[in-house]
Known about the structure:
alpha/beta, 6-stranded parallel sheet, 17% strand
Amino acid sequence: MNVLNKKTVEDVAVAGKRVLVRCDFNVPLNGxxxxxxxxxxxxLPTIEYLLRHxxxxxxxxxxxxxxxxxxxxxxxAPVAKRLxxxxxxxxxxxxxxxxxSAQSLAAGLRDGEVLxxxxxxxxxxxxxxxxxxxxxxxxLADVFxxxxxxSAHRAHASTTGVADYIPAVxxxxxxxxxxxxxxxxxxxxxxLAAILGGAKVSDxxxxxxxxxxxxxTLIVGGGMAYTFFAAQGHTVGTSLCEPDKFDLALEMLQKxxxxxxxxxxxxxxxxxxxxxxxxxxxxxxxxxxxDGWMGLDIGEKTxxxxxxxxxxxxxxxxxxxxxxxxxxxxxxxxxxxxxxVADSDAISIIGGGDSAAxxxxxxxxSKMSHISTGGGASLEFLEGxxxxxxxxxxxx
Length: 396
């Protein structure tokens, strides 16, 4: 898949047109207070471009997981308020998704005005990609812009269905995601290193397999490392482990060998007696985790090993923590990797989720080339899967 051949917002005439933009406003809320507006800020370049070029902007998004019916707890009203402040202009808010309120407000929009529809998941047909709902979205506008990378791996009515009925292009956020992630896989600045962490091998088998065709170095840490050790006959105590993935793990190690990829696993591990932030802990050889102990972070030798392995990289992709990074005592491995990536001269791509949170918390965000806005979407992209929300867009 040539990832850079989709039309963008710059490839269509938007002046005087009603433009429906699918954003990712799935922001964390505490009551009606938005605790992080990062996703709203990320959508501003596309919205501001459309406003500068005289479009009539209609925004839509999901928020949380309402059960296909209106639920005030998941209203986008706080988003409309914050967006008005950020844009310095009133954002009108529809009281429904495609009903009377949405239709009349959309019809009355003038050039340079903004309307936000209510949470698209208040409609039962949204997650089913119901063609009738997709047509109702399309009827509101002349052009569709998808800028919700975090939802691009889902074929829903507001992400893919609507693209069947009106011209569909990507916004700046998706364009940036495709350019960084696509280039990392197709034309990376070498050497290319990938660091994968997180709990389960099963979540990342596709990613590992696809990356082994592309990378020069693959580093595996976090809970998934123990499946690789156990598959090779080592003791892993009570660590996370997926025995049904042993064959796949051995296959991956063999594939790395065949392809000449340097495949690194932790050499030492910080183990605890229980899955508890206060548990007694000690550092042991990764191939000899004692019975009754579980791996909770990578050890100090591994932190040095991984940091050394990243030196001189041209491109680094990182997805997933090295241990139970939400607990301070077992966050050192994740912090060490984040520091090594931040200090490198490589093009650095952080694949959303926990890694993105770690990087932001440590204040390293400005040192990274790109932090993906979509955890699940970036993983599927790295797996080489076609994302429905991007596949649906018009080709250049």
